[in-house]
Specification:
Nucleotidyltransferase, domain 5; 310 residues; alpha+beta; 34% helix; elongated; five-stranded mixed beta sheet; three-stranded antiparallel beta sheet
Length: 310
């Protein structure tokens, strides 16, 4: 869906505030301090800052950004709305350099905004994936310095040469559904079992490659044998999760280029968010941006200075 950059929500701060309020409070303002809805009123005096609301229940004041990743930011709200839209609609992401040029803020500000938006995209209350009749594909990959698109790991439990110093990633993809990815310290069976146990219904069909030697307690655990040139056997394949890795790596290599290890999970959250709310699942760019804005509530994120260049 094409972005109409002349839309007032991207150019007028008052319209942007109305837009944010409609998304965060569809039924009217809710006090983020005490949850009150019937004892709040707007402060429209000339000495009050725009959008200020007072709660008679707790005697607190707030705006639509209070208690969100946008709190205490001096960036105009219309630029926040545009940044959310750009990051939500860019399949392979948008670098802080591109963001600062597009919305006309400093690089440092764009870097802060991008990480706050990734935090908004993080699923704060993940639900169980899969279920009866559903297929979950699981695989692991590496990402790190001098990564040359190594693809899903082969022979990983024996430690494939050339992957030293790279971060390890485990991803779960529900076929025709969501993805969920994790930066992990190791890829031992106990680690993989914990991720599957905590995130996937055992009523699901689990599909992996032959590297996952252990058979997990699912309705079925079916494997394809890449080592012998097998990539699909009927509907048994890991092509979906490998496709997810492909988009992630192209975005990281082509868009972001550099990512400090301490921030990798946030980038995974970003790619998971877009994949889990993609057009194929009936979510358009406008709706995806609104979902990210909804996710901004109840989260705070502060940084002193950028630690990675994009």
């Amino acid at each position: 869906m094409t972005i109409n950059l002349t839309d007032p929500v991207f150019t007028d701060e008052a319209k942007a505030r109305e837009h944010l309020e409609e998304i965060r409070w569809p039924d009217g303002p809710v006090c983020p301090h005490c949850g009150s809805v019937d004892k709040v009123y707007r402060l429209n005096g000339t000495k009050h800052r725009p959008g200020l609301i007072h709660c008679n229940n707790c005697d607190g004041s707030f705006t639509v950004t209070t208690g969100s990743v946008m709190e205490s930011s001096h960036v105009p709200l219309n630029k926040w709305v545009l940044a959310f839209r750009l990051m939500a609609s860019s399949k392979k992401g948008m670098s802080a350099h591109q963001l600062h040029r597009t919305i006309v803020v400093t690089y440092k500000t764009a870097w802060f905004m991008a990480h706050r938006i990734r935090e908004a995209m993080r699923d704060a209350a993940p639900t169980t994936m899969g279920g009866e009749g559903r297929i979950i594909e699981s695989d692991e990959t590496y990402w790190g310095p001098k990564d040359k698109d190594t693809g899903p790991m082969k022979g990983r439990r024996k430690g494939k040469p050339g992957h030293g110093g790279k971060s390890k990633i485990v991803s779960l993809v529900e076929r025709d559904g969501r993805s969920r990815s994790f930066k992990v310290d190791d890829i031992k069976t106990a680690t993989l079992h914990g991720i599957l146990r905590d995130n996937v219904s055992t009523k699901s069909r689990l599909m992996t490659d032959e590297g996952m030697a252990h058979n997990f307690a699912f309705v079925s655990h079916e494997k394809v044998h890449h080592g012998s040139g097998e990539y699909a056997r009927g509907d048994v394949t890991t092509n979906t999760v490998e496709g997810f890795f492909g988009v992630f790596k192209r975005g990281m290599r082509g868009t972001y280029q550099h990512c400090g290890e301490q921030h990798l999970q946030r980038y995974l959250d970003e790619f998971d968010f877009r994949y889990s709310n993609r057009a194929k699942l009936g979510v358009n760019d406008t709706e995806r941006a609104a979902l990210a804005i909804k996710g901004a509530a109840g989260k705070r994120l502060t940084y002193r200075q950028p630690r990675s260049a994009e």
